[in-house]
Amino acid sequence: MTDHRPWRGVLVATALPLNDDLSVNYDQYAEHCAWLVENGCDGVVPNGSLGEYQVLTPEERARVVETAVAAIGGQRVMPGVAAYGSAESRRWAEQAGEAGCEAVMLLPPNAYRADERSVLAHYAEVAKAGLPVVAYNNPIDTKVDLVPELLARLHGEGHIRGVKEFSGDVRRAYRIAELAPELDLLIGADDVLLELAVAGAKGWVAGYPNALPQASVELYHAAVDGDLDTARDLYRQLHPLLRWDSRVEFVQAIKLSMDLVGRHGGPCRPPRMPLLPEQEAAVRAATEKAVAAGLS
After folding, report:
1. Helix, strand or coil for residue 28?
2. Which pLDDT score is estimated for 2?
3. Are 10 and 214 in contact (CB under 8 A)?
4. Averaged in consecutive runs of 10 residues, what is the pLDDT profile of the chain (296 residues)?
5. 174: Cβ–Cβ under 8 A, 6 or more apart, which residues?
6. 86-99 vs 58-72: helix axis angle to the nearest 10?
7. Of 3, 118, 127, 249, which is least surrounded by CB within 10 A?
């Protein structure tokens, strides 16, 4: 098994720029991926929830991956390959490999509340595509919880190499390290970044670097390097924005911040609705405060 781990560092779960007619703006997406790398990010994760993969056509979804690879190289691209069926997820993993990617990120079965046998079978099937798999634990949305004991079993059987941990329970980091010390823990929610970095995270599948990459990267490296004075200061300043990554309206909030800093977030496809006026005002105020403080 190779020790190459392209999921380490700051990988941005990319928002997908949409035009006013809700079509995908692939040119702007390519430019966005390149801009993120130029500003210190290590790579991108297209076709995650932030990328609205659930409402893309198969053709759009494949082209998003190909666009990212063409922009920054496959070694920097770890697509999400979630789907209702294991066979479909495996096909998306195979498509990622054919496009030149070197790893994929996979949710557990999410069409229903899967039991442990189903979870194991799902990851075993997708692992057959031949690419390293990073599990994505999001029990809030999927209703399937990849608890540390299950993650250790998935890793022990060779199905996963890392986990994007989005449960919000930072205590799990220590249990995962005890049960599966070679399983890479990735920060999965922006608003527990400092806590999981201190606990030994090897990477961050990140949301808010879509809008503020340089400050976010500085925060991550200060946290994992143990420069807690720098990290705490940045964390306090950014947390009014970072906490939106764990809210229902995270896609709309991050896209609004992108628009405010001169990027192109654009609208979201239905059924996501625009932010309520009070939500928009809160995101706008927090973004403008961060920019005024010199964070970018």
Report:
1. helix
2. 53
3. no
4. 84 98 98 98 98 98 98 98 97 98 96 94 98 97 96 98 98 98 98 98 98 98 98 98 98 98 97 98 98 96
5. 199
6. 30
7. 3
* Contacts (Cβ under 8 Å, ≥6 apart) of 213: 12, 35, 36, 39, 40, 41, 296
* Alpha-helical segments (H) within the chain: 26-38, 58-72, 86-99, 116-127, 139-142, 148-156, 172-179, 193-198, 213-224, 228-242, 250-260, 277-292
How far is residue 203's CA from residue 193's CA, in Å, rounded to a whole number? 10
C-alpha distances (whole Å) from 176 to each of 38, 69, 173 are 33, 32, 5
Q: To which residue do tokens 């557990």 refer?
A: 108
Query: What was the pLDDT predicted at 132?
Result: 98
Q: Is residue 250 within 8 Å of 244, Cβ to Cβ?
A: yes
Total length of the chain: 296
Written as six digits, the tokens of 93 are 């993993």
Quick check: helix, strand or coil at residue 49? helix
- Say what the pLDDT of residue 110 is: 87
Check: pTM over 0.85? Answer yes or no: yes
Check: CB of residue 241 under 8 Å from CB of residue 255: no
Three-state secondary-structure class, residue 106: strand
DSSP state of 54: G
Separation CA 104–CA 7 (nearest Å): 9
